[in-house]
Design brief:
alpha+beta, eight-stranded mixed beta sheet, five-stranded mixed beta sheet, binds histidyl-adenosine monophosphate
Length: about 425
């Protein structure tokens, strides 16, 4: 028990962290270029925020939240996603009172109590963006372009962007009713989840994964059949803007997404080769959410992308990772009398901005050289008391095996020069 991590969580070890830096740094760069600023949100929020924000008929709220009472008796939930928290922060910090749109991005862990499998975890990581205060269909298209741009910069190929419009509070009731009418004769045959969805959230009947429900749903009305003129015009404008930006996409009229807050545009990005959990990202508009959370009527739109699934997709496509950060210098001690000076040398190298390491286990010189090799240090400085007395050290360039004698006062310049 003590040496087992909770199911559905993982340790990201130092040997793998460069992958995460790469994904995160690239995301920060893309977001900055599209005018988004980073927001850091709490990992936990009041439970009520998620229940109200995501809707109490969503799977996430019904069965997947990590909810507990804190010591003050308040109900707290580990965030299952970032949108509700971003809305709360937008309101709490009066960001709606400033210039709009407000464009923010975030990265970090999310928590859902789901059945773990490849690509599905209980603690997973998302990068996401949220933009508040604009109805412009150009913004819908631009955030999809941003997501696709990000994947492209990561080298991913074979992605499919699926887009739909799920309507607004005016046209949604029409769709709900038509779906109920369509499924009414087969209600008893639906899976237990869908039988409850039939009353509580009929839209979700469209994206049940159960084979029987899928076959019963053949020919069911879709959101696109029921859009009001305003939603239809918005969706047409979004598609026009996607074409303008050169983003390829497929319209999927059955795409409804798992969270209740969506209005108008909804989209998902799928990739093959990573198993059943092929959605590597998704998002859409949520024009009613700010109001539901107690704010002024404010349109919003955003997406989130799963980093573990991006890693799986990159690895299944055989894409190489950028090299891990390297150790610049290993300071080896040739004899005990040189040890104190070697420690000072190490500090001097670090102060000059070099990554420098030494031995802490009393290893022999030979073993220290071996350790320098394991750490992939670019250079090993060999500090021997005799050379130090003469104001010099030996420097081994690890890639070539070449050895140099370098005066101490020139050591930093020498190393930096060779590294360049
Ligand atoms: P979501 O579709 O629930 O949307 O999650 C977005 C992405 O997070 C998924 O496409 C997937 O890549 C990843 N993901 C979700 N659950 C898991 C899991 N259990 N394990 C691994 N990866 C997972 C949202 O979260 C919305 N907040 C997106 C959004 C932002 N919509 C508007 N703004």
């Amino acid at each position: 028990m003590l040496t087992n991590r909770p199911r559905g969580t993982s340790d990201i070890l130092p040997a793998d962290i460069h992958k995460w830096y790469y994904l995160e740094d690239t995301f920060r760069q893309v977001c900055h270029q599209y005018g988004y600023g980073e927001i850091r949100l709490p990992i936990f929020e009041h439970t009520e925020l998620f229940v109200r924000g995501m809707g109490d008929t969503t799977d996430v709220v019904e069965k997947e939240m990590y909810t507990f009472n804190d010591r003050g008796g308040r109900s707290i939930t580990l965030r299952p996603e970032g949108t509700a928290g971003a809305v709360r922060a937008y309101l709490e910090n009066n960001l709606y009172a400033g210039p709009q749109p407000v464009k923010m991005y975030y990265l970090g862990p999310m928590f859902r109590y789901d059945r773990p499998q490849a690509g599905r975890y209980r603690q997973f990581h998302q990068v996401g963006i949220e933009a508040f205060g604009s109805h412009d269909p150009g913004l819908d298209a631009e955030i999809m372009a941003l997501a696709m741009d990000y994947y492209t910069r990561l080298g991913l190929s074979g992605l499919c962007l699926q887009v739909n419009s799920v309507g607004c509070p005016q046209c949604r009731p029409v769709l709900r009713q038509r779906l109920q009418e369509f499924f009414a004769p087969h209600r008893e045959e639906l899976c237990p989840d869908c039988q409850s969805r039939y009353h509580r959230n009929p839209l979700r009947l469209l994206d049940c994964k159960n084979e029987k429900c899928q076959s019963l749903g053949q020919g069911a009305p879709s959101a696109l059949d029921c859009l009001c003129p305003e939603c239809a015009a918005h969706f047409a404008a979004v598609r026009h803007q996607l074409d303008l930006l050169g983003v390829s996409y497929q319209v999927n009229p059955r795409l409804v997404r798992g969270l209740d807050y969506y209005t108008h545009t909804a989209f998902e990005i799928l990739v093959g080769g990573i198993g059943a959990q092929s959605a590597i990202g998704g998002g859409g508009r949520y024009n009613g959410l700010v109001e539901v959370c107690g704010g002024p009527p404010t349109p919003g739109i955003g997406f989130a992308l799963g980093l573990e699934r991006i890693i799986l997709a990159r690895e299944s496509q055989g894409l190489p990772w950028p090299r891990a950060r390297q150790m610049d210098v290993y300071v080896a001690v040739a004899d005990a009398a040189a040890a104190d000076r070697a420690v000072r040398l190490l500090t001097e190298l670090r102060s000059a901005g070099l990554a420098a390491e030494r031995d802490y286990l009393g290893r022999s010189l030979k073993a220290q050289m071996k350790q320098a090799g394991r750490l992939e240090a670019a250079f090993t400085v060999i500090a021997g008391s005799q050379e130090l007395e003469q104001g010099r050290v030996a420097v081994k360039e690890m890639s070539t095996g070449e050895q140099h004698t370098v005066p101490l006062e020139q050591l930093v310049d020498f190393l930096q020069g060779r590294m360049r």
